[in-house]
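Following up on my earlier thread - several people asked me to post the actual chain instead of describing it. Fair enough. Here it is, all 79 residues.
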Amino acid sequence: MAAAGDGGGDPGPGDGELENGVAETGLSASSGQELHFTLEVPAGASNLEFQISGGSGDADLYVQSARRRPPPAMSAAPI
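Reply from S.P.:
Thanks for posting it. Predicted structure:
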């Protein structure tokens, strides 16, 4: 998967590629704002786990396989 974003310059918060075991810190978003990340998962990998912790408010996590971003109909389901 390629990193999300507009493709120009350094990615902003929430527009980058995650690395296994590396926490993303210092993130914030306003109500209705979305932060997008990608993660390259090797073929045959199992037991994929995402964690959301800290902060305040209500965060939703959407995970989708083999696509950069969910289509407008949001076929991905919240976890």
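Residues 1-9 have pLDDT under 50 and may be disordered. That should answer part of your original question.
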